[in-house]
């Protein structure tokens, strides 16, 4: 499992932008049997690693059929985000992959384009997941595509 993190400004997603991100997840997951989850929280009173691990358990990302779930966690108050892939995807993708996605997202976030950064990151994740975990006719959507807002 791996994570990439970097500092960001408070994510300001409008209702329309949140819907756009959820749609990007839905489109991405049509390409793959993997799952992508975006969680936005206001505070993180522990390390990003621990917060991500807690959310992974709570959202069931560690229970997907192929262990190919990816969490994007944004912590507004700390101005940080983290990307964490379950063991199935990390074993195949490697750290450079996660770092590249982190950099793409961080560049968009630095310009104030939070929805674009999330959508670009989701698309890159989906392309990699599709290569290693292609969509199957029998696959079901194991997790909701909606953004989770966690306090």
- Which regions contain 5 or more consecutive residues with pLDDT less than 50? 1-11
Largest sheet: 5 strands, mixed
- Portion of residues in helices? 40-55%
| CATH architecture label | Roll
The CATH first-level class comes to Alpha Beta
Task: Please tally the helical runs, counting DSSP H or I stretches of 4 or more residues.
Answer: 5
What does this structure look like?
The structure is a single chain. With 151 residues, the protein is α/β, with parallel strands linked by helices. The chain has a single domain (2-150), classed as Diaminopimelate Epimerase, Chain A, domain 1. Helix content is 46%, strand content 19%. It contains five helices and five strands; from the N terminus they run βαβαββαααβ. It has a five-stranded mixed beta sheet with strand order 1-4-3-2-5, sandwiched between helices. A hairpin with a 4-residue loop joins β3 (69-75) and β4. α1 (15-29) runs parallel beside α5 (114-132) and α4 (95-110) runs antiparallel to α5 (114-132). The longest helix is centred in the C-terminal third of the chain and has 19 residues, at 114-132. The protein is globular. It starts with a strand and ends with a strand. Residues 1-11 have low confidence and may be disordered.
